[in-house]
Amino acid sequence: MSTVREISASDWRIWRALRLRALREDPDAFASTLATALERDTQDGEAYWRGYFTRPGPVLIAEVDGAPVGMARVVVEDGPAHLYSMWVAPEARGRGVGARLITAGLDWLAAHHPGRTLRLEVVETNLPARRLYSRCGFVVVGPNPEDAAEIVMEHVPDR
User: Transmembrane residues, as ranges (predicted)?
Assistant: First the structure.
């Protein structure tokens, strides 16, 4: 059974480990690269990783038997909220971990910003992720104008 919890800046090492693993194992799933993250890690260290916690919204991790296996961030600024850095480790895929992360993000958003749309970008060819997002109520709204390889999906809450 997996659990999802919000972490804080004091847990930056957990986020760092998950983020570097995600960039290493699934480099095509993210706009950023492992090389860039490692360079920033070398230059800025802890300050770089704590920076992930400065934008408004929760930083979430999923754990199976106490081991971190997934991550996601919900960022709330002007306009729709945004789901970033969504990733589930290969050994935890197909076990509902991704859906639990998304549900936790949607629940947090509904509690703190009722009626707010949640938006994400996903690589168009990443069919497993697209299916997961669709199962969680996201719909395709069009291509990502900033990256031709991606599409934009949104979850609009019932009003």
Answer: none
How many Å is the maximal CA-CA distance in the chain?
46
Unique residue bearing structure tokens 């509690």: 111
Q: Find out whether 87 and 26 touch, Cβ atoms under 8 Å.
A: yes
Q: Residue 141, exposed/middle/buried by CB under 10 A (0-12, 13-18, 19+)?
A: middle
Write down the pTM of the prediction: 0.92
pLDDT digits (tens, 9 = 90+) for 15-37: 999 999 999 999 888 878 889 88
User: Does domain 2-155 bear CATH number 1.10.1740.10?
Assistant: no
Q: CA-CA distance, 149 to 76, in Å (whole number)?
A: 24
